[in-house]
Design a protein that fits this description.
This protein is mostly beta strands. Helices cover 14% and strands 50% of the residues.
Length: 238
């Protein structure tokens, strides 16, 4: 192995071998660009990845913020069921893209919950109930009740409502308009925890029975909401 035309020393070779190999960075993959404190800077899309350098454009092809050379950033994206976080340094930029090199994989895990988005979304929820009849395992949809989604991630959602459900209950959200311009989502969830209140209760729910296509669609919707929030902050001069 060589470094800038000279052979690597034994120590450099050992250090290079110890470094974990980078996960694949797919062409046109959507990713979050974050600062070192995990604050979202912009939602981007991979324009190019070659020779250890990834070029990231703003996902909606808008201008990206100015940045200093050697600024440390994080790139977070989703790959084959895994949430991947890369650390790197800015090696070039323009109003349309950032280039990041010196990439290192800091985190890879079987979880999508990192892509979490706060919401204030009113919708309806209904419990799945056991159908009548002795020994009957068939489930039917119970009474629809108003509720409000407080946040959503690739793993589940947080909602509040006046109804009292139990831990492990299965809930169905039959028509959730995450984005007004897109087709509604139908979510089936299991209650994992409950925070009872005086007037309303909060429920932490885990998604069930979601296809890969629906998961990808939801991930893109979360990124779209984040882009809108960033643009709103820009418009307010924040």
């Amino acid at each position: 192995m060589k470094l800038w035309g000279r052979p690597l020393s034994e120590q450099e070779s050992e250090e290079a071998e110890k470094k974990p190999k980078l996960p694949k960075i797919p062409a046109k993959a959507m990713m979050e660009v974050l600062d070192i404190n995990n604050q979202l800077i912009f939602v981007g899309r991979v324009a190019e990845y070659a020779r250890g350098v990834v070029t990231v454009r703003e996902a909606a092809d808008q201008e990206v913020p100015p940045v200093f050379y050697n600024t440390e950033v994080k790139l977070r994206y989703f790959l084959n069921g895994e949430n991947v976080v890369l650390h790197g340094m800015i090696c070039g930029s323009s109003p349309r893209f950032w280039r990041v090199d010196r990439l290192e994989c800091q985190f890879t895990a079987q979880q999508r919950t990192a892509f979490r988005q706060r919401l204030r979304l009113k919708t309806q929820v209904a419990p799945m109930e056991r159908a009548g009849g002795k020994g009957e395992d068939e489930k039917i949809l119970g009474k629809l009740s108003p509720c409000e989604l407080l946040d959503i991630s690739m793993g589940g959602l947080l909602m509040k409502c006046r109804e009292l459900y139990q831990a492990d209950d299965i809930l169905v959200f039959p028509k959730v308009m995450v984005l007004p311009e897109e087709a509604p989502y139908s979510f089936t969830c299991q209650i994992r925890w409950i925070n009872e209140g005086r007037l309303e209760n909060q429920y932490g729910c885990k998604f069930q029975e979601m296809s890969d296509w629906e998961e990808d669609r939801l991930l893109k919707a979360i990124f779209a909401i984040q882009r809108e929030e960033i643009q709103e902050r820009k418009n307010r001069g924040l």
